[in-house]
Here is the input.
Amino acid sequence: MSTDYQQAREALGVRLRELRLSAPEGRLTGTALAYRLCWPNSKVSKLELGRQTATPEDLHQWATACGRPDAYDELRARLAGFESHIRSWRRQLGGGHKPVQDAHNQAQAHSKVLRAWESSWIVGVLQTPDYARAVLTRSAELHNSPRDIEEAVRARMRRQELLYSGGRRYHVILWEPVLRSLVCSPSVLAAQLDRLTGVIGMDTVELGIVPLTASLKVPPGLGFWIYDDRQVVTETWHAELWLDDADTLALYLRTWKTLRESAVYGADAHHTINAARRALNPR
Here is the structure.
């Protein structure tokens, strides 16, 4: 968890404590507030100390129980401020996978130069429907999230319209293991690799592959997107990070450019993809 995120969570906790201690009906103890809310005492303590992230409903109940329902908008704005940078999957996927896809569609639609590095799977904008379905199904199983898979697949496929709308340039680099990783069935992966070969040569996409045999100046690390050199989006097992401070942007851009030095393009990329394709049907 980032220091900025934790500091913001602690600041929210301080504000919650202020509301409890200045309740119009008189100062509330933590125990009294917990009783009103039917919460364990530990939850009140964790929220005030910044050891637990409040939900919007938590904040609404807190403000109401303290006799300050008018404070909810302020509390919600504070929460939105730091959640806009670190978006936990538990919260994001509470409403299913489609809203997450819609958010990425919007972010890419408002960008002109998009750079991506991916070391785990084919990037969404280049996926086939069957590949997307397999990846999203695995994600839903992992996070125990609502199964709106078909809606999410359709939303992800709409992203591909951006490849043909003009005025936008995608610079995508994939690590070769992505081409061989069976996150789906072999037949689905074969069709996905065929899709990739068809992307090579498009005027809106520059597709590079970093071969396993390439010399790397930095470890592959996690995948990420850079939108117009103004925002970085990356993800971990527990959250998706949307980062926009100058130092972080500069670091990710240097990382992307360093990885690009190890990539192959054009006919060489085509050859690497075809080698992975042939490996699925050895003779």
About this structure: DSSP finds 13 helices and seven strands in the chain. The longest strand covers residues 169-175. The chain has a mean pLDDT of 93. The domain at 88-279 is CATH 3.30.870.10 (Endonuclease; Chain A).
